[in-house]
Amino acid sequence: MGWKGRDIISIREFSRKDIDEVLKRSSKMDKKHNKSLVGKKLSAIFFEPSTRTRLSFETAMHNLGGEVIGFNESKGTSVEKGESLVDTVKIVERYSDCIVMRNPLEGSARLAAETSSIPVINAGDGSNQHPTQTFLDLYCIKKNFGKIEGLKIGLVGDLKYGRTAHSLALGLSHYVDSLRLISPQNLSMPPHISKEISSRTKLDERTDLKLEGLDVVYMTRIQKERFPDVEEYEKTKGVYVLTKERAAKINGIVMHPLPRVDEISPEVDSLKQAKYFEQAACGIPVRMAILEMVMKG
Amino acid sequence: MGWKGRDIISIREFSRKDIDEVLKRSSKMDKKHNKSLVGKKLSAIFFEPSTRTRLSFETAMHNLGGEVIGFNESKGTSVEKGESLVDTVKIVERYSDCIVMRNPLEGSARLAAETSSIPVINAGDGSNQHPTQTFLDLYCIKKNFGKIEGLKIGLVGDLKYGRTAHSLALGLSHYVDSLRLISPQNLSMPPHISKEISSRTKLDERTDLKLEGLDVVYMTRIQKERFPDVEEYEKTKGVYVLTKERAAKINGIVMHPLPRVDEISPEVDSLKQAKYFEQAACGIPVRMAILEMVMKG
Amino acid sequence: MGWKGRDIISIREFSRKDIDEVLKRSSKMDKKHNKSLVGKKLSAIFFEPSTRTRLSFETAMHNLGGEVIGFNESKGTSVEKGESLVDTVKIVERYSDCIVMRNPLEGSARLAAETSSIPVINAGDGSNQHPTQTFLDLYCIKKNFGKIEGLKIGLVGDLKYGRTAHSLALGLSHYVDSLRLISPQNLSMPPHISKEISSRTKLDERTDLKLEGLDVVYMTRIQKERFPDVEEYEKTKGVYVLTKERAAKINGIVMHPLPRVDEISPEVDSLKQAKYFEQAACGIPVRMAILEMVMKG
Q1: Which positions in chain B touch A78 (Cβ < 8 Å)?
Q2: Model pTM?
Q3: pLDDT per position in chain B (297 positions), as tens?
Q4: Chains B and C: how many Cβ contacts under 8 Å?
Q5: Of A143, C233, C251, C257, which is least packed with CB atoms within 10 Å of its CB?
Q6: Which residues of A touch B (CB under 8 A)?
Q7: How far is the alpha carbon of C263 from chain B, nearest alpha carbon, in Å?
Q8: Distance from CA of A282 to the nearest CA of C (A)
Q9: B152 DSSP 8-state letter
């Protein structure tokens, strides 16, 4: 399948070979790039606000010489006047060369892609998918270790509701033999995803924060709202916080999709293990690569 | 009257010759354009949010090499701190070369134009005027038929409150011999506008959805709030909905300023008659033409 | 101290020599500039909305060929999800070459600067500092008189809470022998600032609107909320309003940081004394100078 015109909706649609290609192109972008998208326009339509994702797509587009139009919340758009997503897409596709969309509804990105004649990049459709986050997570790992194969990787936190963890687990399953999944009992990886992953990778699911032997500790946010009562939340939270003491013992690196709240102490930032800000920076070359691939091939 | 420095406030200020010139320039823009506005800045000051209009002005400006600054709601502007429109205009005119403004108050665009030393383009002042919408409507008609003269055109829906319909009727009156106006009894064209138009064009005002013989069916939104009671609204709405069945019988094209809500069934989109998305796309060349005309002549 | 990489947090950090250099560079920018910041990116992170400051920074950056990313309110940013300012800064510093920030919390700009490896420009941290406003105020004075030394300058209005008045008084104290401070009793300059200024400049503090002999009358807004009761406010307001009659007698110029509400009558705008819109325009060359200085040296 060619890349030009391709929609980027779910990590599920990408083979190991596809992912390798994105990572290779991202690495090239990191080293050198030219103004390959001069005259091209990106519509950034964010029905739900975002800082990191939107700003890094804008930066990526500017780096390649292209321009960005769009909005950052559905308030004040025609959607508020009752316009359907399909109609909005049918209009902005006539103004631009690519659409990047965030929308609170699961499946909205797929719908937009089916409607649109220009490529659609899913920047998050509710709790469903956010594939460019997974590409940048994988790229950050590869950048640090030179490879992904054979690494020992653990995902920590809310593995039930966290779309980032789902997609990353799916992506990693193409590369690693085993995956450690660490979460509170009530926030473990949903069976339909575990099942999909376990066809390719052995899963080590546990509730204790065992970080020994891991090359990558991938932390995620645990949200209060996910717990039946506050006490339960407070108890669990403490167990899953990465303190400086805990982090210092890790032999590998610490990642986090950000924003973090309490789950990584600020003191960890100064440790050599802390790679989450560098990870955020990986969003630029990865999104540059993807934008160029879908608009230029 | 020269174009350079000219304000674009109301369709009423444009003679047939003026409109012809805008349409001709728009057509040229559609075929080929250069970066004629490099170094120029457009202030897009939208005191009321907008998607389509703002994005198409931004796209138009970018296409010509110019830049855009501005805001998309009065929240968070100095206006919230009590600043007058006149003061806001006096500041942004010092930052840029042209102002495009949307403001909920009727007459605000005229006030801004009187204050400003740089050209002001009215992108909607309440229920009053939105002249670039009319130019793009006329351009879409001309693009489809090669002419406007002699066409049979019907405006359908809320002709009382809809500023789009008022302006388009005024614009069309320079070109056509007759105009069909189809609306519920309580939403018919206001007498002061009918009178103005009927000096140039014969009006056929009716309440039944008679579409036969029309080259252009111009649909508009009927808003619930306009009706004394919900029952009345529901009854009327049904009568004026353009279903696939009704649309398929039309010999001409269907237009709509968008956003639409219920008044055109989504099934109509796939018919050859449906031209409303193409119409939205006409906003780009038309706004490019106008921006170049008022900033460069 | 070199300029490249320097943070611009408080006017207190700038010596007379520093300020002179900014004014000289601003004057050069006013005459001629080139695209010295092509390929550079400015992150404009406004946790509190702004029109004038944000638009003039954007314009300044565009004039020099650079690009701007950012947001204009904390709503819809990761901050709403509980992200700390430090984390936000650590991310955007990886996307760009300079940060300009407005934040309601005093001291936030300093914190951001300590965190960031790229220069941070304070565009207002609560009631604390807004140094580029002071630079543009000083530049406007210099542009009008060819010098600042020896001028008779009066600051009028709310001198207690107005950060603009505090910073300007500090800046002026490097240049003038005396300064007239005119305010209601309950809104006089805080002692810690008077003391700091009076080490360099004689202060003439008064409550009556004595404008005779002034080269510059610098008006500021008096906010209703600052008064114990409405009656007191109404009484005071009347005394401090610059009417056309009062303004016409001034031998010098009238300035105001804008937005104004009632404190200068609109009739004053047409007088030759009125320089406040010209003052706002000074924001462009001054911000161009500062952006170039901190990014290029």
Answers
A1: 51-52, 258-259
A2: 0.93
A3: 699 999 999 999 999 999 999 999 999 999 999 999 999 999 999 998 888 899 999 999 999 999 999 988 766 566 666 678 999 999 999 999 999 999 999 999 999 999 999 999 999 998 889 999 999 999 999 999 999 999 999 999 999 988 899 999 999 999 999 999 999 988 999 999 999 999 999 999 999 999 999 999 999 988 777 777 888 788 777 788 999 999 999 999 999 999 998 899 999 999 999 999 999 999 999 999 999 999 999
A4: 61
A5: C251
A6: 41, 43, 67, 69-71, 75-84, 86-88, 90-92, 94-96
A7: 12
A8: 9
A9: -
Dihedral sign for Cα C1, C3, C4, C6, please: positive
Residues of B with a catalytic annotation lie at 52-53, 81, 102, 130
Lookup: tokens for C186: 């309950």
User: Could you say which of A41, A71, A91 has the minimum Cβ distance to residue B277?
Assistant: A91
C282: part of which helix (H) or strand (E)? none
**Chain B environment of C62 (Cβ under 8 Å):** 41, 67, 69
| CATH 3.40.50.1370 domain range(s) in chain C | 11-129+283-296, 132-280
Phi, psi of A243 (to 5 degrees): -80, 170
Token pair 């779910």 in the structure block, residue:
A10
Say which of C70, C75, C95 has its CB closest to residue A284.
Answer: C95
- Give yes or no for a cis peptide into B259 (omega within 30° of 0): yes
B55, B69, B223, B268: best mutation site toward chain A, by most A Cβ within 10 Å?
Answer: B55
Region of A124 please: left (phi>0), alpha (psi -120 to 50) or beta: left
CB C233 within 8 A of CB C224: yes
Q: In chain A, where does the domain assigned CATH 3.40.50.1370 lie?
A: 11-130+283-296, 132-280
> Would the CB atoms of C280 and B70 count as touching at under 8 Å?
no
Q: Identify which of B43, B76, B90 has the shortest CB distance to residue C277.
A: B90
Q: Is ipTM > 0.85 here?
A: yes
* Superfamily holding C132-280: Aspartate/ornithine carbamoyltransferase (3.40.50.1370)
Annotation: CATH topology of C11-129+283-296? Rossmann fold (3.40.50)
